[in-house]
Batch of 2 targets.
Target 1
Amino acid sequence: MVREGMLLVLSAPSGCGKTTILKRVMAGLPGLVFSVSHTTRPPRPGEQDGRDYHFVDRAAFVAIRDRQPSGFLEWAEVHGNLYGTSREEVSRLRAQGLDVVLDIDVQGAARVRRDWDPVTVFIAPPSLAELERRLRGRGTEAEETIALRLANARREMAAADDYQYLVVNDDLDVAVDALRAIIVAERCRRRRMPSGETVELRL
Amino acid sequence: MVREGMLLVLSAPSGCGKTTILKRVMAGLPGLVFSVSHTTRPPRPGEQDGRDYHFVDRAAFVAIRDRQPSGFLEWAEVHGNLYGTSREEVSRLRAQGLDVVLDIDVQGAARVRRDWDPVTVFIAPPSLAELERRLRGRGTEAEETIALRLANARREMAAADDYQYLVVNDDLDVAVDALRAIIVAERCRRRRMPSGETVELRL
C-alpha cells in the first residue's frame, strides 16, 4: 500500500533564495515533485506545454476554476495572467506517494490552508536590511523595483506567523539542511501513516 | 534573548538500536543534551555522581518526588530502584536554549505528555520478527530474557500511535538521519520562536 504524499506549501519574499534552496533540496531528496501549473500566459521560447506549464486559454482556465468544487487548489491573477494549481494533478501525484511542492505566495497559501492539510514553510531573510542589501547586490534591478519588492517583503513577512515552519536563510547550507529536515521529519509523522502499518508493526 | 530548548521524549522497545541512533545524532548535532537522572540504585564501578546519575537515598528521592508540584517530570521504579527526571534540571537546561532528551519508556512518556508539550518520537523495529532475529543474534541473552523482551516490545509498540513521530530502524543511517531531521525541523517550528523574533523580522 502506497502512503499518500504530503502537500508542501512554500512561500518567501522575493530575494530570499527560495528557488535555490528548493532546487538543492529536490536534487537530494527523491519523492519530492512540483505540480505543473496551468496558466493563460503565452509560452516563452523553450517552454514546453505539460512540462513547464499547462498552457490554456482564458475560457478553459475559467471553466476549470469555476467547477464545483473548483478544479484548482488555488489560483491567482498576476499582471493580467491567470495561474492555477490543478487539484486533479496534485491528487494524482500524492496518490502515487509523491510529496507535492506548491511554490505560492501568502494569499495562495491561506487558501490552501483553509481546505487542505498542508505542511507550510516560510523562508525569510535574516532581516529586511539584509534583504535590501541582497536585492541591491544583484545590480540588475531598478530602484523602484527594489522599493516594490521590499514593500512586498514587509507585507509578506507579517504573514510568517501563520506558517508552521520558519526557515531563515542566513547561511544557504543551513537553510537547505533545514528545509530538507522538515520534509524528512514530516514523512515520519505518525498521523501520516495508514493504520495498516501499525497493525503490521504490532504483529 | 535565548530561545527555550525543546523537550524530546524518545522511546523504543529494547533491541531497536535507540542508544546507537541517539549517540550518533547527539555527536553530530550541537545543543542536544541528556538531563542527568536521579536514582536510588548504588553507583556501579566507574559511575560518577552528577555525571552519570544523581545518586540519592530513598528518603531524599521520595522528598523530591512528593513536592507539590513534584520535583520530577516523571519517575519510575525498576527492579526495586527508583529513577526520576529532575524538573529543575530540565528547566535550567532548556532556559539555556539546550534541547533536552528524555530516554524513557511508554509509561514515563504518557506522564510527560500529560503535563508538558514534548516532541515525542517512537523508534520501532521493521517488525517483531526482525526484532526477535536481532535479539537472538546477540547470542548473549537467555531464552526467557528474549521472550520477556519480545512480550514487552509487543506491549510498547501498541503505544506507538500516541507518539508524534515514528522512526523505523530498518537501515541505521536512515534512522539516524530521520531522528536528526525531526530535531532540526522542530527547531524551525514557528510556535517555538519568541514573538520578539517576528518583530525583528518585520523591521
Target 2
Amino acid sequence: MTREGHPDRAHAAALDAADPLAGFRARFVHSGDEHIYLDGNSLGRLPLATRERLHALVEEWGERLVAGWPDWIDAPARTGDLLAAAVLGAGPGEVVVTDSTTVNLYKLVNAALDARGEGALISDRDNFPTDRYVLEGIAAARGLELHLFATDPLAGPVSEDLAASAPGDVVVFSHVAYRSGALADMELITRAAHQTGATLIWDVSHSAGAVPVDLRAHGVELAVGCTYKYLNGGPGAPAFLYVAEALQAELRSPIWGWFAQSEQFAMDRAYEPVAGAGRFLAGTPAILQLAAVEEGVRLTAEARMDRIRAKSVALTELIVALHDAWLAPLGFTLGTPREPALRGSHVSLRHPAAWPITRALAAAGVTPDFRGPDSIRLGIAPLYTRFVDVYDAVDRLRGIVERGDHERVDASPARVT
Amino acid sequence: MTREGHPDRAHAAALDAADPLAGFRARFVHSGDEHIYLDGNSLGRLPLATRERLHALVEEWGERLVAGWPDWIDAPARTGDLLAAAVLGAGPGEVVVTDSTTVNLYKLVNAALDARGEGALISDRDNFPTDRYVLEGIAAARGLELHLFATDPLAGPVSEDLAASAPGDVVVFSHVAYRSGALADMELITRAAHQTGATLIWDVSHSAGAVPVDLRAHGVELAVGCTYKYLNGGPGAPAFLYVAEALQAELRSPIWGWFAQSEQFAMDRAYEPVAGAGRFLAGTPAILQLAAVEEGVRLTAEARMDRIRAKSVALTELIVALHDAWLAPLGFTLGTPREPALRGSHVSLRHPAAWPITRALAAAGVTPDFRGPDSIRLGIAPLYTRFVDVYDAVDRLRGIVERGDHERVDASPARVT
C-alpha cells in the first residue's frame, strides 16, 4: 500500500506472485502487441489446448470423414456433463451444449408453458436484450402478458420481485447483470419461485466460469448460458441448457429434431425423445465449436471454481479500491455493487464521457468494453487477468481523464458486442 | 466400352482425363490410407482452403479477440449471399447461414402459419426424419392436422400430391429424396402450391451443391438446407434458410433474438427485426464453422453448378450402367430413378443383405453409406469423385457379392449418419 492508502503497483505485483492460478495465463494465446484485455466477459481468450484441439479436429474431419461421427455424436452430452460437474453444480444428463443461448431459452420457456399452463412471462427491464426479445416473441405468439419490471441496477432482481407471481408464470432472470455486474441471490430467488409456483429459468451467461453456480444445491429447475465468455469457447461457440433431472420427463422441447430422437438412425419411427436433457437437442450440433467448448471447460475444471472466484473477488476489489482513490475524484461512480458477495466478475465504471474514454483507453492499449449509456466495463477473467493488468489499466484510465485525452479521440459511433 | 457392352476401366479413366473439374480433387484433403469415399452426400471432404481458413481464423480469435467482431458479425448474411448467387438461384438478402436445418425449418413453418393462417401440415412419409419430427412437433403444439402421405420412392413427391391442399396449409418437401435420390420437379410442384394457395417449403439439403437449384426462377417462397454435405462445410456446419424477397416483410421468426434486431447494440429498445432474411437470425452465430461454409461455397462457385451437375449425371450414369451389367444379376435392384433428369447425385443400390455388404465394402476400402432397410447409397461429389473411383467401387462391390464376402463380415448394428 502507498502512504495515500491505496494499493501501489508493487502490491499488485506481489498479489500476482502469490496467485495460485498465475500459471494459467501461459495456457492462453497472447498477441504480439499485447493489449491489457479486460473483455473476457464478452469474448474469452484462445487457450493453447483449444488451438491444438481445433487443428487436430480439422485434420480428423479430413482424414476420418463420416467415420468420425461415432466419436463426435455424443459431444453435446459429454461436454454438458463436464460443464455440469465442473462449473454448474449439476449432475450427469442434466446439461447439454448446443445451439445458442437465444434458441435454448426459447426451448425452455415454451417447454415450461406447455407443461405447466400458460401464465405470464416475467423478467426485468435490465435483463440481457436477447432474453427479453425471446420473451417478447413468445408472449406475442401465445397472447400472454409480459411483465418487465425495473430493478435497482446495483442489486438486480430480488426475491420480492416474485411475490406476485403464480403457478404457470415463467420467470427469466440473469444470475449476473450484464451491465452492473450485480450478482443475484440464486438461492433466495429460487426458493421464492418454488413458493409461488412460478417456473424460474436462470441465465448464467455472465456467471458460468467466473462465479460458482450451484444449480442442484439451490433447487434450480432450468437454466441456460453462454460458453464464449468466461468459458473461452470462441466466437459463436454453442451455448448450454440445464434441465433438472426431476423435470426431464415432464418437459419437451418445442423443436423436435433428430438429435433428440431415441434410436436416431432408425429413420422410420415417430418422434420419441430420449431421456435426459438430450431431449432438448434439435439438429446436427456444431462439432468443431463443441470441441473448443470442451477444451475451455477442461481448463476451468482444472483451475477449480473456488480458486477462480477467490481471484475474481480479489481483482474486482482492487478495481474498487483504485476507483475510490483515483477515479471518484474525476467524476466516476461505481456502477457495480461495492460488496464483493453481491457482484460477479466485472466492474462497471460510470462516467458521462464513458464512450470517448473507452476509445481513448483502447488507444492506450487497454481493451475494456462499453455498454450504453455510460458504463465502461472492466471484465476479470481470473484464468488470465493479472493484478498488474488491472492496476495498469486503471492507472491509464486515470491518466486519460486527468489529461483530457478522451476529449481529443475519434469517438465515432459504437459497435460493441 | 468392353465387348460385353458395359464401360471398362480404361473408359472410366478416359472420362477422368477429359473432366473439366478434375483439378478440383487436389483442392481437398485426402487421407494416407485412401478409401474410395462415396459418402460426400452425408459429410463432404475438407477443402485445403478451409483448413487454411480455419487455422487463420483460430489465430484471429487469439490475436484480435473482440476486435474481430466487426469482420465476423456479417458472416451469416455474407455467406448467405454467396450461396444464394452461386448455388441457390436466389438474390442478395434472401439467404442467411445460421443454426441447423431443423431449427431453420421450425422457424419457417411457424412463420408461415402465423402469417397465413393455421391450415394442415403436409409432407411425405419418406421425407428426412428431422423434417417430419419438426412437423410432428408443430402439429402437436398447435393442434393441427399432419398429413404424411406415401410416395413412389422412385418419383418422390409430385404436383398431384398438392391437389387437396388449401390456403393456410404448409407443405414441406425435399428436393432430392435422401434414400432414393429421386429429384422432385421443383418448378411444377411449386406452381401447384401457388395454385392451391398452400405455402411450400423446400428442403434442398440433398441437392444444394450437387443439383442446380433455381429458387427465384421457380417462384419458390421458402427453403432450408444443409451445408455439410455437397457444400463441404464440415461436421455440424450451420445450415441455411431462404425467404423470397416478396415474403420478407410478411414473415417473422418465432424465435426473436438479438442477431435479428435492428440496431443490435442499442440495447434498450423493443424487438424490431431487420429487413431481409436476416430477420430469421436468432443468437450469436457459429463464427468458426461459418468460415468453413464460406470456403466450401467459394469452391462450388468456382467450379460452377452447371459443370458440377453435368459431371454428377455422367458419374451416376456410370453407376447405373455397371449396376445393370454386374449387379442386377447378383440380386441388386436400382433404388434410384433410371432417368438422369429425375435423380440427384447419389445412387441407391438395393439388396436384401445391404448392411453386411456395406460392411464388407468398407473393409474393401470403399466408404458408401447405408440407409435402412436395404439401401447402399453411393454418393457422388463431383468436386472430388472420379470416374475410376466409381468404377473401382462397383467392381469391388461385385466381387464381394460374387465371393460371398459379406456373409463372413461382422455386421454388428448400424450407426450411420
